[in-house]
Amino acid sequence: MSFMQTIAIVNHKGGTGKTTTTVNLAVALAQNNLSVIAIDLDPQGSLSYYLQAVQPYTISEALTGEVPLTKIVVNREGVDILPANQRLADIELAMVNIPQREYLIKQLFERIIGYDFLLVDCSPSLSLLTVNALTAVKKVIIPMQLEVLSLQGLSLILDTVFGIKEQLNPNLQILGILPVMLDKRKKVTSEILEYLKTNIGLPLFSPIHTDVKAIEAPSFGKSILSYAPSSISAQDYRRVAQELLQSCEYHNNS
Ligand SMILES: Nc1ncnc2c1ncn2[C@@H]1O[C@H](COP(=O)(O)OP(=O)(O)OP(=O)(O)O)[C@@H](O)[C@H]1O
Ligand SMILES: [Mg+2]
Questions:
Q1: pLDDT per residue over 44-75, tens digit each?
Q2: Which of 89, 113, 150, 204 is least surrounded by CB atoms within 10 angstroms?
């Protein structure tokens, strides 16, 4: 791949599979011999916890310039991780008073070079950190649970992305919505999936099924792909990684 693909995994709603998606897509891409860095941009530090990448130094020290990136980034399952912890919440508060406050993560990402993919796990809010992420990346994936209230919340995240595209980042593109936690036993999830296919006018990735292996994997500090490689959700994430690769080729060539 000729230049780095930068993708934010974003949804202001909580528990929509952002972290699970960032981790497992990152590992699936790495398994395709691509170089990947996953950025934890959530003061909850879930991505760092998920892959046992909790470290004394985090993205906060990279942002303040206290510690060089090379001393912070750790590799797990073939993916470089830039971890976060709750200090990021204080950094975010301090960011508010800085001129160019929407561009601080973009400036940080300019120092991250040589990867095929950079994935950002965002926090469940439309906070300054999320605005920064959307200003810093070229592409967005929106994981969405197949529930009525998630559908109702979709317009807010879409409005936010289009607002940032207009004001701060003209090249921003929505690669697609990723339906997660599809449960064929619950009729409503299939109905919402059908609704999305016909009414949203945005690309849809293949859905990720509800899978107990997805819940268990982080308690072992492993991606689903290494914890349960033949599970349905591991297969789903590998498929979505292929779709992502095709989609990036398409956007590069168009
Ligand atoms: N395919 C799946 N099947 C079953 N459970 C899942 C699946 N994907 C994620 N989960 C579970 O759903 C919960 C929320 O997932 P996750 O933490 O990835 O969401 P999130 O959007 O990052 O949450 P937050 O908004 O708090 O950052 C977790 O408990 C996770 O284990
Ligand atoms: Mg999360």
A1: 999 999 999 999 999 999 999 999 999 999 99
A2: 113
